[in-house]
């Protein structure tokens, strides 16, 4: 029964919160009532059984909890009486092309009135359903900082009376960037879940679904197209990424198990952007890199010179240490592990707390025959990794290769 509630939380959390936000126009009310509804499910479902439509049951229960709470508060404070009024749905924007409560909630959480970090944290919590610890790991910051961002963001939305709707056509392009950042983080959390099992396909599916909606709304936006292509090409490899309880790295994956329909769709989107003749953004370049990887029938067929050229372009767009770390993997294939290790070691001040830094360094040290140093780097990577399947992979590679 606990599993049923957990599954319902993953599947229905955003639906319940967005439905209550649409009705009551208050994110605090929506989130707290949703949490109470799930708590009620934990108490009642073991005795009553799982309802035929868990989402409808949870939404109805949450609405009752919200109304009860607001009535209690209204007796103490007249300013809460207006919250009992049902909010009429707002225009969806862009000629009403899309009608989706979660998309409205997404744009509300990503409103320009909020700081960028607050937009991302709030959306991951309310739309993605991630916990505060999961969001903190995604940001590599303290849980208390994430909690404060979410609280302040909700207060700002209420004070500024941010509308619950998809922006109008003229406002939409300026709002898309922060939405894409959020969707990419949600997808990444699903693709390599923190503190849980190997993956959370519910999160990757939701990120792809919402990105498809954005692509339908903005079919000519290069970065929306690029992110959708990136997600599809990454998701296509998921069937081969886990064996038992262990993560399978790219060089060991059975490429015959990849989802070739998703690969074909992703490749078509990449070609579409190339044909547009417009300078690519970050997501388009990442999608192109993944297109090169998924075009190779075997690991040794990978066109590493093209991968490196694309990373060189990406570094100019996004000069982050993580991009530099990923670029070093291509450098190792073309110029050897010693050259790549020198690049990686220069990144240590910025990436000392990032598990992938130590895992990459461990592999390069192994290839150079520096076994003791490689083992120590693998150990550090294991210490910093929150995903159980990735830990199993690192331990195996450490013990077999270091």
Chain-wise SSE layout:
Elements lengths: L1 H23 L2 H22 L5 H23 L24 H9 L6 H11 L5 H8 L3 H18 L11 H20 L9 H17 L4 H14 L6 E2 L2 E2 L12 H17 L5 H14 L8 H14 L3 H15 L1 H9 L2 H4 L3 H13 L3 H14 L3 H14 L1
Antiparallel strand pairs: 1-2
Question: In words, what does this structure look like?
Answer:
By secondary structure, this protein is mainly alpha-helical. The protein is 69% helix and 1% strand. The protein has helices spanning 2-24, 27-48, 54-76, 101-109, 116-126, 132-139, 143-160, 172-191, 201-217, 222-235, 260-276, 282-295, 304-317, 321-335, 337-345, 348-351, 355-367, 371-384, 388-401, and strands spanning 242-243, 246-247. Helix 9 runs antiparallel to helix 10 (222-235). Residues 15-75 form the RNA polymerase sigma-70 region domain. GO terms for molecular function: DNA binding; sigma factor activity. It comes from Lentzea jiangxiensis.
**Assigned CATH superfamily of one domain:** Tetratricopeptide repeat domain
* Coarse structural class: mainly alpha
Share of β-strand residues: under 5%
Mean pLDDT: 87
Our measurement of the CA-to-CA distance between the termini, rounded to an integer number of angstroms, reads 43 Å
Largest sheet properties? 2 strands, antiparallel
Specify the CATH class of one domain: Mainly Alpha
Task: Give the fraction of residues assigned to helices.
Answer: 55-70%
Short overview:
Keywords: Sigma factor, Transcription, Transcription regulation. The protein has 402 residues and is an all-alpha fold.
Please give a handful of descriptors for the protein shown.
402 residues, mainly alpha, Rna Polymerase Sigma Factor, Chain: A, Serine Threonine Protein Phosphatase 5, Tetratricopeptide repeat, two-stranded antiparallel ribbon, 19 helices, 2 strands, globular, RNA_pol_sigma_r2, sigma factor activity, transcription
